Amino acid sequence: MSLPAILTSREDRADGFDVVIPESWQQGRTAYGGISAALAYEAAKRAGEDLPPLRSAQISFIGPLSGRVSVTAKLERQGRNAAFVAASVTGEGGIGLSAMFVFMRPMESQVSFTDGDLPDLVPPFEAKEIPAGTGPSFAQNFEGEPIDFTAGRGGADIRRWFRLKDRHGLDPMTELVLMGDGLPPAAMAVMTTRAPISSLTWIFNVLRPPETRDGWWLLSARSDHAKDGASSQDMSVWNAGGSLIARGMQSIALFG
């Protein structure tokens, strides 16, 4: 079931909605972090009147989520320029995700610069199926190039062109939130044996409106520190035209 279909099936409440996350969106024993975050955003954007665009999010992956979940959101404060909305996703085992979304209107400023050149990878612009059984269940909802792993001294990089198979009618910002967590941890580039992993926190800033061509996004992640079972990585999302759309940071637990 695609994300647009999942959202169509939701049962709305005053503070959010109930919905079922199907097995096709699982990643091990929990739902793919991107879909949990996207559901939280969908509730958050309805929590206030005339909210400006999403500018930043702080997400904590607290526990496993699967099956039927409750998604709630509360407007904490709305000022002239920015609004803060707290959201959570709760399943049978309790809370699985907690998030704070910051919505902020564009403002005039004397400061304007950017530094985010597109890596030297050519967009595929052709649908390429991800072979069944080559990744977690949720990966079958996407198309993309094989992951480019680069392991070097003092760090590890991974990147991939990625797009959602069914994005019909989806809010572009919801799509960006869904896509942004679509890579495995960069630290996997230097792993010699498979080991369990778990995302702990994810922080991202939206730099430009989430617009691209034919649904293609380039995701990249770089880790320059992994020690004592914890890895920190920087993350970026570019559109098909080479514009940097979002930047983020993630903390990941490495169980082995």
Can you characterise this structure?
With 256 residues, this protein is mainly beta. The chain folds into 2 domains: 3-104, Roll (Thiol Ester Dehydrase, Chain A); 137-254, Hotdog Thioesterase (Thiol Ester Dehydrase, Chain A, Roll). 10% of the residues lie in helices and 45% in strands. It is built from 3 helices and 15 strands. The chain has helices at residues 3-8, 33-44, 172-179; strands at residues 11-13, 16-21, 26-27, 30-31, 54-61, 67-78, 82-91, 94-104, 142-144, 148-152, 155-164, 197-206, 217-227, 230-239, 244-254. Strands 1, 2, 5, 6, 7, 8, 9, 10, 11, 12, 13, 14 and 15 form a 13-stranded antiparallel β-sheet that branches. Strands 3-4 form a two-stranded antiparallel ribbon. β7 and β8 form a beta hairpin. α2 (33-44) runs antiparallel to α3. The chain is globular.
Short overview:
The protein is 10% helix and 45% strand. It starts with a helix and ends with a strand.
Observed structural traits:
globular; single chain; two-stranded antiparallel ribbon; 10% helix; TesB-like acyl-CoA thioesterase 1; 256 residues; 13-stranded antiparallel beta sheet; Thiol Ester Dehydrase, Chain A; mainly beta; 3 helices
CATH class of the largest domain: Alpha Beta
Mean pLDDT: 89
Computed Rg: 18 Å
Strand fraction: 35-45%
Helix content: 10-25%
Q: CATH homologous superfamily of the largest domain?
A: Hotdog Thioesterase
Shape: globular
The helix-strand sequence is HEEEEHEEEEEEEHEEEE
CATH topology value of the largest domain? Thiol Ester Dehydrase, Chain A
Poorly predicted regions are none
* DSSP strand count: 15
Which sheet architecture does the biggest sheet show? 13 strands, antiparallel
Please indicate the count of domains.
Answer: 2
Separate helix tally: 3
* CATH architectural type of the largest domain: Roll
Distance between the termini: 33 Å
Structural class: mainly beta
Pfam family, one: 4HBT_3
Organism: Pacificimonas flava
Protein name: TesB-like acyl-CoA thioesterase 1
InterPro entries: ACOT8-like_C, Acyl-CoA_hotdog, HotDog_dom_sf, TesB_ACOT8-like_N
